[in-house]
Amino acid sequence: MKPFQDAEHLPSRGTWDPSQLPRQRKGKTPQMHGRYPDYDVLAEVDHWDDVTRKLVVGRVENVPPYRFFGEREVPTLEAFCDCLTAQDDEPRIPVLAYVDEKLFENDGDGYQYFDMPTDQETWRTVARGLDDEAAKLGRDSFAVLVAHEQHEVVHRFDQGELYGGAWATFNVSRAWSIVVRYVCEAFYAHPWAWNEIGFGGPAYPRGYAAFGSPQLGEEEHWEAKEAVDVDAMQDTQRKGLD
Amino acid sequence: MVGKLIAKSVANIREGRMQKLLAASTALSAPALALEIYLEHYKGSFGDKWMWTPLWLTPPLTAAGIAGVVSPKAARTVLPLFGALYALDGLIGIYTHVRGIEKRPGGFHETQYNLVMGPPLLAPGSLAMVGGMGVLAGIMKRER
Amino acid sequence: MLKTGSFAMPEANDSPFLLDMHERGLQNLDRMARYDEKETVDLLVIGAGAGGVTLAQRLARKGWRIVILEKGPLWDPDRDWVSDEKGAGPIYWTDNRIIGGTDPIQMGKNNSGVGVGGSMTHFAGYVPRFHPSDFEVRSRDGVAVDWPISYWDLKASFERVERELPVAGQRWPWGDPHDYPHKPHPIAGAAAKAWQGAKDCGIEMRVGPVSITNGVFGNRPHCIYRGFCLQGCKVNAKASPLITHLPDAIEHGVEVRADSMAIRVELDDASGRVSGVTYVHDGQEHFQPADAVAVCGYAIETPRLLLNSTSRRFPHGLANNSDQVGRYVMVQGATQVAARFPELMRMYKAPPPEVSSEQFYETDESRGFARGFSIQTVSPLPIAWAEHVTAEGHWGLALREYMRDWNHWTVLGVLCELMPQPENRVTLADQKDQFGMPVASFSHSLCDNDKANIAYATKVMQEIWSGAEAQDTLKIDRYAHLVGGCRMGSTPEESVVDSSHRAWDVPNLFVVDGSVLPTEGAANPALVIMALADRFATLLEEKNVA
After folding, report:
1. Is the ipTM of this structure higher than 0.90?
2. pLDDT at C353
3. Radius of gyration of chain C (CA)
4. Which residues in chain A have Cβ-Cβ distances shorter than 8 Å to B113?
5. pLDDT digits (tens, 9 = 90+) for C2-18
6. What pLDDT, in 10s, does the model give residues A168-218?
7. DSSP 3-state assignment of C337?
């Protein structure tokens, strides 16, 4: 039976522990686990057009420096982004660096809620608010809270249940939706995340011939293949590497 | 009875007397091929007017093939004529199919992808073969 | 039946042949006309989208001297567009807009384009026709308003535009049944799932209709099923006016002035006619005089420009003496339900638009609300998929897990016809943009009929997926498309333009874009906007409306 056919691992049925996932053997994924241990989208760059290749490879190789957020905001928001994306270990996608770039370049998404400040101001206020929550626990910064404390604060943010101080200056639920949007865009624009979820990545000039229609095959030879974890010992024996 | 017929046919083939056989084969295979071409070109929405030409040429070739079975004169005149046109269309088809692959994004640099998704490179060769049978019929001796 | 493919090529539009097989950018820019700013052109078009470019192409062929002003760049897909979800940012209108009301509408990539080609550079590609009933919803269903024109006034325009895009799809059984010039595309496994699930619930689906080449079309190649329709088609396979109408327009003397933001339509107070348009290019204000002006800036920018164009005769904005400019802006309820299956769906492949159904398009009183909805397959790429996951409140480990599971999912979306309401409107905010112009403020709230429609449509999607035995579902409430804001009507008290797109009280001002729609139907708006521009051009030829 092919792996992951049942849906028992989905969060709607309980919590899946990513430590049970296979370790990445080719290319990188955030925290080096994923469903497609032998897939590296960056191995396909020769099939991408020049403009796209420059942009996507550049995204990985040239992480933008912090220009928008200040010294106090960076550790707080880095910890917050890690919490939102469950990045508890290296390698990490440097989410906040891309968020900083977007805010610094004022490269907004084209709208502002009538009851919200600019996205820049929203992010700064969130940083202040998170540190306010840390102060309530007697700590100097959200960044130094232990994991379960951070989780608890983020959970209340998600529920819109943060009050007073910075949080009183805007609509907390909208602020949540805005920061989540920025974080997800930064994370899932990154090729390491594509490796983790098995996305084919840029597809020009090479497109797809096999797309699962009744007349056509299901997948290209180079596309990601799902796999459950392999016992390292058996695997090396099977491949004759022992 | 059947044995006799086979023996006679084999003798005819050995002696190069295959005119009726080839004319009949042409008349039978052209419509089958045309159906296949229709379905394939349909998938490409008949984006180029040339994609209709094998379908236009099929009825006259089929008629010429049937005529060639009945009449030795037809077998030496109209059949090779339409056979040659059909074959020529096939050669043009190979050229247009090669161009078709070239015109796709990535062209022959993305060879594997474009060979699979582009027009089938050598498929028009079957037109040349069917048309060629018609031409050959014109050259062959007539069966007794 | 034989009128397909190469025998259904457009008769008066050489665009597909003016493009190059291998280079995606326009090939005839060196021949583009350049009009002097002192010269009064016959028509000044504002906005190079579905309405503006189609109109300019038609009239240029009749010898009109036309300039199109476009706020954004003249794209070269080879150079400017990338095969990347985040990298597609520049093709969306991302200048700030204030959103409000009880159900605020997200703008930007969701519904707003910038640059030559307009929003069609990043629309999914669905181009269904409006139904005959859409033009008479007041008479038939007692809601909203009737259009001042009927389906039959637009039918020939629909057919002409379908050939020019070209549209690929199965024979269409709903509304006014019709065929398409290109054959239906092969469908992906994910769409096949939706098809089967729908069938098991007694719902018919059809492949298409999409404005994506299925076979060569002049020098436009066959689609390569790469899945990036919403990020700008680098193949020139998916239609946008940049490639379907502009090449021919340029060939017939149209000038496109890109990177030029119109800030005011100027009125000659003495004559009551518009004299031209003030616009900003490279930080400098310019004025282009014109005999007539066609505003084609879509549902937000057209009202914004008119509201900003004040004069003695029109102190509250041009053509706004009845306080109608900016009102009745509509979006479609576009809730999507994703479903999980044991097999790999890999929805990043094949065009996002594949199969659709209009079985629920018309009013059915037993459903308890007026009008209806259509159902379509959609295929979010990773960033958009994250929006589906976070919409249900997942973050952290749960977010990562649903994201990892992406390849097992497929998505259905609906387009619910929402009602035009006067308070769903565009006004000018206090905030100013980089051109010193007040930004648009868009307030949007749902009415009870809207809510009932969306709830019912969502239930139908859930039923389709349970029919297909989905293992899990995720729902996201969202909105798509923008129309209305300068609606067409029969009286100056209740509309901005008449049935020939002319502003009441301003004889040489026209609005030719999605903002003139009095109701929105449950169909994607691109085709009807182009068809309206086509019809308007025909009217001008026949009786010289200006």
Report:
1. yes
2. 81
3. 22
4. 206-207, 209
5. 466 777 788 899 999 99
6. 999 999 999 999 999 999 999 999 999 999 999 999 999 988 877 655 557
7. strand
Residue C253 in any domain: the answer is: yes
Decide if C84 and A107 are in contact by the 8 Å CB cutoff.
no
Q: How many residues does chain C have?
A: 546
Q: Which residues of C touch A197 (CB under 8 A)?
A: 382, 403-404, 406-407
Residue C147 vs residues C152, C159, C348, C371, C421: alpha-carbon distances, Å: 12, 20, 39, 15, 15
The three-state secondary structure class of C502 is strand
Q: Measured between alpha carbons, how far is C97 from C229 in angstroms, rounded to an integer?
A: 25
First-to-last alpha carbon distance for chain A, in angstroms, is 27
Pairing outcome for strands C473-476 and C273-281: unpaired
Domain extent, residue C538, equals: 36-543
Residue B34 forms part of a structural domain:
yes
For A4-31, write each residue's pLDDT tens digit: 888 888 888 876 678 888 899 999 999 9
Question: Could C228 and A209 be called an inter-chain contact, meaning their C-beta atoms sit closer than 8 Å?
Answer: no
| Side-chain half-sphere CA neighbours of C469 within 13 A | 4
User: Measured between alpha carbons, how far is A195 from A31 in angstroms, rounded to an integer?
Assistant: 12
Is residue C168 in a domain?
A: yes
Residue C25 belongs to some domain of the structure: no
Domain that holds residue B100: 2-139
- Residues in A touching C223 (Cβ below 8 Å): 207
Q: Is B55 on the interface with C (CB under 8 A)?
A: no
Of C80, C99, C381, the CB nearest to A113: C99
What is the full DSSP assignment across A152-199?
Answer: HHHHHHHTT---SGGGGGS-HHHHHHHHHHHHHHHHHTSHHHHHHHT-
Task: Characterize the bridge pairing of strands C336-340 and C409-416.
Answer: antiparallel
How close C234 comes to chain B (CA, Å)? 9
User: Which residues in C71-84 are b (16+ Cβ under 10 Å) and which e?
Assistant: bbebbebbebbbbb
Measured distance CA(C373)–CA(C523) in Å, rounded: 8
Residue A240, number of CB atoms within 10 A of its CB? 6
> How many domains in chain B?
1
Q: Answer positive or negative: Cα dihedral of C300, C303, C307, C310.
A: positive
Report the domain count for chain C.
1
Q: How far apart are CA C508 and CA C272, in angstroms?
A: 9
- From chain A, the residues in CB contact with C398 under 8 A are 11, 15
**B134 domain-assigned:** yes
Residue C439: phi and psi, rounded to 5, are -75, 160
User: From the centroid of its chain, how far is CA C154?
Assistant: 17
Give the Cα separation of C197 and C239 in Å (integer).
30
Touching B: which chains, 3+ CB pairs < 8 A?
A, C
Cα separation of C447 and C417, whole Å? 12
CATH number at residue C413: 3.50.50.60
Residue B142 burial by Cβ neighbours in a 10 Å radius (0-12, 13-18, 19+) = middle
Could you tell me the pLDDT band of residue A242, with boundaries at 50, 70 and 90?
Answer: very low
Residue C414 φ/ψ, nearest 5 degrees: -120, 160
Collect all residues of chain A within an 8 Å Cβ-Cβ radius of residue B106: 47, 205-206
Q: Which residue of B has its CA nearest to C169?
A: B45
Q: In this structure, is the dihedral angle defined by the CA atoms of residues B102, B106, B112 and B116, taken in order, positive or negative?
A: negative
Nearest to A51 by CA among C257, C267, C232: C232
Taking chain C, what is the end-to-end CA distance rounded to the nearest angstrom?
A: 39
Domain presence at residue C15: no
Contact A127, A75 (CB under 8 A): no
Mutate to test the interface with A, among C348, C385, C466 (most CBs of A within 10 A): C348
The CA distance from B43 to C5, in Å, is 10
Report the alpha-carbon distance of residue C241 to residue C58 in Å, rounded: 12
pLDDT of residue B10: 86
Q: In terms of C-beta density within 10 A (0-12 exposed, 13-18 middle, 19 or more buried), how is residue B144 classed?
A: exposed
